[in-house]
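Hey team,

Filing this mostly as a record. A colleague (T.K.) asked me to run one chain through the structure pipeline before their review meeting, and I want the input and output archived in the tracker in case anyone asks later how it was produced. No errors, nothing strange. Just documentation.

Input sequence:
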Amino acid sequence: MQGKFYDNINVLDSVETENLKIEVLEYKELKGSKDPGLSKEIYYVQKSGMSLKQVKVTLKDGGIITEAGALNFHKGNVTSESNIGGVGGLAKKMIKNKLTNESTFKPRYRGVGEVFLEPSFSHYIIVKLDGGSIIVDKGLFYCCEDSLEVGVASQKNISAGLFGSEGWFQTKISGTGTCVLESPVPMNEVLKYQLNNEKLQVDGNFSLLRSGSVNFTVERSTKGITGAFTSGEGLLQTFEGTGSVWLAPTQPVYNVMGMRGIPQLQSATYNRDNKT
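Output structure:
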């Protein structure tokens, strides 16, 4: 990267393969607003530690699949296609869209050049797959190498479909290649667990992804209806088998703060710690 433009940019993470290079860029400062009111908001945003980020993909005769509307601009000998796949393909994509809450059309960009996706204050995580598959939370898919397949995974257990907070279907990414997920929390707040024929139980909906080899069910925290009520806990998301599970334990805290503010969060914590 060259020029003064890049003096204001950090590379937070990057992965390079034979066909492409994916980088997560971070803008160090934002000083472009001529509106004093907006400048004040930008100042407090940056003081809070938030930063504007952008995903850059350098294509070396490779291809990338993105979420619809994610493109910011591209440079070089890069072509785009809608990847509809005829009437049958269109029908399948529309069904998948309804099932997984992902966009129907995922553009594909191929060639030699640079592709920049839309800047945002989101957090981006680069994940490499080597012949396996991952099942991700709804809305996390952002882009991937076109050697990967983005499909649908159905819940294999009735309890997971009814009480798992994700519905009956999730997004499944399979094959060999690199993908980028849009995470609700930064990478340093993600806990990666490698299960070895083990069980992991989570009280809440803050799992980001799991290996396709890991079974997902929903179980009561204690046996019997009476025990579930008296324990003060509800249903537990249960992951069992061999493979990876990624958790974002701080996500529920951000959700409460966003809806109710810090005072309500403190009140909820006090009530939980002092209940009899």
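Quick notes for T.K.: The chain has six helices and 13 strands. Residues 86-100 form the longest helix (15 residues).
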